Fold:
Amino acid sequence: MFDITKKPFIIFWELTRACKLACKHCRAKAQKERHPDELTFEEARNLIDQIIAFGKPYPLVVITGGDPLMREDVFDIISYGVGKGLRIAMAFSGTDLGERKLQELKEAGVARIAISIDAINPEVHDSFRGIRGTFERSLKILENAIRLGIPVQINTTVTRMNLHELPGIARLAMEKEVALWDVFFVVPTGRAKPEYMPSPQEFEDVLNWLYDVSKRGLNVKSSAATHLRRIELQRDGGKKPQVSELYYRLLDELEESESKPGKIIAGGHGKSLASDGIKRMMGITDGRGMFFISHVGEVYPSGFLPVVAGNVRESTLQQIYNSGIFAELKNPDLLKGKCGRCEFRRICGGSRARAFAMYSDYLAEEPRCIYQPEK
Structure:
């Protein structure tokens, strides 16, 4: 049983900021070369030991970047963590992952890999990622990973520029029977600009549409848009939130696809379980049940909330997670504005990262939620 006030459910670990892409919405402002002060291999091993110190059940670890494949020791790091009993997934840019490296990841024991698909139109996707040909390479990696028996999820960043692409990505995810579609709603930090964000009504429309997608056999998770949990509870209870034309347009396009209803159903009254056994847990948001470790050992509530809570070179993860900003973020009763009054604050709580990006206050209300609390 997880008590997220005492230990995280999920940890994101930025192994390096080096990356060959130049994504318009990159949180990390990734660079072509590795930083000279990155955690060493020995420090990485020590970090894994600190994660183990949280005790069983261990947090899920997601290795990310930049592109973690820019570090040659990534396979050894994964192997060490898996040998200690951790489940380790990996998200990468997809620029340099042939069959040999995929096989090495499988042999190291990676639990799942995440591949970014931001549009079904290659030109739109490649313009997001800043390098031509990225879409085709990502599709090839997806197919090779499935053939090798490596569980795969698709990650999609939602912006105002690619809303019309979402049904096509959903169809691809259904066709490939991926373990999860992780739909991330852009936060204006790093290279991402405020004008990239959909409007509050567009958030509501897409999230309601994602609920419908989940009922068609696709395991769906929203990132930086925790109000999907509120929508799941409302829809499961027979109450449909206010939607607009965008919702119906997305739904019409989804209806044109072949789907397999009932295979995996995620809902507010139960936890989804992907085909590879990695669960989703309610109530997780920035600093509450999760945190982020940077390439130089800095710990943040999330990769999109740039407030340093400590450094693993100076303190243990347990010390950091149980003090300072984390103590505030783990208490939803401290939230301000309508989030603080909302009856769904314990399962949602809004994106603390987006609140900080827009208001310079990580306890402020979610800027992209139209719901008005009943209280």
Remarks:
- The two ends are 31 Å apart (CA to CA).
